[in-house]
Amino acid sequence: MNVAGILQSNIAAWLTSETKLNAGRARTEFARRLRRQPHELLYFHRADDPYCQLMVQILPDLASRFNIKIKPLVIEQLPANMYPDPARFEAYSIIDATRLARLYGLGFPSSAVVPDRLGVGMANRYLAGLQNDLGFFAAAQEVGAALWREDIAEVKRLCVIADIHEDRLAHNEKKLRSLGHYASATLYYGGEFYPGIDRLDHLERRLNRLGLGDGEVHYELTRLWRYRLGKMDKSVSGRSVDMYFSVRSPYSYVALQTMSEFAAKSGIRIKLKPVLPMVMRGLALPYNKGRYILFDAAREARAENIPFGKIIDPLGLATRRAMALGFALQEDGSDLAFFKAFTKGVWSEGIDGTTDKGLMKILERAGLPASKVSAALPDDVWKEKAERNRQEMLMAGSWAVPTFRVGGETLWGQDRLWAIVDALK
User: Fold this and answer.
1) How far apart (Å, rounded) are the C-alpha atoms in residues 31 and 15?
2) Per-residue pLDDT of the chain (425 residues; tens, 9 = 90+)
3) Looking at residue 223, what DSSP letter applies?
């Protein structure tokens, strides 16, 4: 590896390290005490976000358990450049929120569809007028419940006294962007973002370390998939799960590591479906989104005890070489071992996937002979296979990696292994 590569990987390791994270938290807490400010979280709410309907049901309890103040800020427009396929994202979010509601025992209709736009507009403006009111969460829950069960008459009745708060909505949207994020259902505290129920366990642990809470973690059910494996029927063994992934996605790296463990413990077969990274397909990755993804992937990796951070970005030649070789290795079933070793090499070990030396080291880690390099497929062959995988993923209702397909169900995200267990059941 050249000097530039060594420098790049070491800088990435520092930027994603727990040491840097804790130092930033210490500075934040020192500044808060110096200014004698209370512990305050910002919460960004959007009436037609199904994850928000779950959040307003649990945030009052979170505030009371940790003796913190949660300040709601209502938004309406999400940054368009952050969502390459908004229609699929919207449709999938509703299905996913239904799953999360079942998991946590929250209210959300299983028959929910994209809500009425007039009702959404009324709800957002009504709630924007209440965002400084102590009754905000109760009102948001009530209005949201009516909206999601398509009771527009009830939405109109509840929101009849709504004032127009266009400036407030725009101000809140600008605030979200200036802080460095792009999604609703998101909490912000001390320089870090916690989007949805899936990341609340990170917040709970942080607040517990500050001595604010009850010492418990209530929102980690999505991480307990290993315990759920023991309750699966033995007939699951031998079934297959399709996995769409990209070697340039840090979430895919985490998912390859955990899915490998999942397969070993359950007996399922993982059918890998590599796709080209979005940037190599001509789609832009906005700075704020890329920055957050890297930070979030790092903390998710730590939660799973997966090494992460010493990164040599595989964009370009490294990805092309990995795809050419990985598709060839599908013939004898050694593609999982290879892709697992490749992603670990570029995301945690600082291995340069563009060089023969780097590929040889990756093959060695995968337990494969160096002679496998010669089996790499021509560009036109593997690119056609990658595009076919992407089209399959789109037809299944997903737009991004990692995506899993279990029977007739589509699941998106490295943190959906618990849902894979349920789907297999």
Assistant:
1) 21
2) 677 778 889 999 999 999 999 999 999 999 999 999 999 999 999 999 999 999 999 999 999 999 899 999 999 999 989 999 999 999 999 999 999 999 999 999 999 999 999 999 999 999 999 999 999 999 999 999 999 999 999 999 999 765 667 899 999 999 999 999 999 999 999 999 999 999 999 999 999 999 998 899 999 999 999 998 877 777 788 899 999 999 999 999 999 999 999 999 999 999 999 999 999 998 889 999 999 999 999 999 999 999 999 999 999 999 999 999 999 999 999 999 999 999 999 999 999 999 999 999 999 999 999 999 999 999 999 999 999 999 999 999 999 999 999 989 999 999 999 999 999 98
3) G
Do 152 and 169 sit in the same domain of this protein?
Answer: yes
Alpha-carbon distance 187 to 203, whole Å? 9
DSSP state of 425: -
Q: For residue 325, count CB atoms less than 10 angstroms from its CB and return exposed for 0-12, middle for 13-18, buried for 19 or more.
A: buried
Residues 6+ positions from 167 with CB-CB distance below 8 Å:
none
Instruction: State whether 180 and 241 are in the same domain.
Output: no
> Are residues 246 and 97 part of one domain?
no
- DSSP line for 43-76: EEE-TT-HHHHHHHHHHHHHHHHHT-EEEEEE--
Same domain, 95 and 190: yes
Strands 269-274 and 240-245, bridge-based pairing: parallel
Does residue 253 sit in the same domain as residue 201?
no
Same domain, 231 and 218: no
- Report the CATH number that the domain containing residue 355 is assigned in CATH: 3.40.30.10
Element containing residue 192 per DSSP (H, E):
strand 192-195
The phi and psi torsions of 143 (rounded to 5 degrees) equal -65, -45
Domain count, the chain: 2
User: Has residue 21 been placed in a domain?
Assistant: no
Q: Could you tell me the sign of the dihedral formed by the alpha carbons of 402, 404, 410, 415, in that order?
A: negative
Domain boundaries, position 94: 26-222
Domain boundary residue among 167, 192, 222? Answer: 222
The verdict on 214 and 348 lying in the same domain is no
Residue 6: inside a domain? no
- Report residue 53: phi and psi, to 5°: -65, -30
Residue 403 and residue 417: Cα distance in Å, rounded? 11
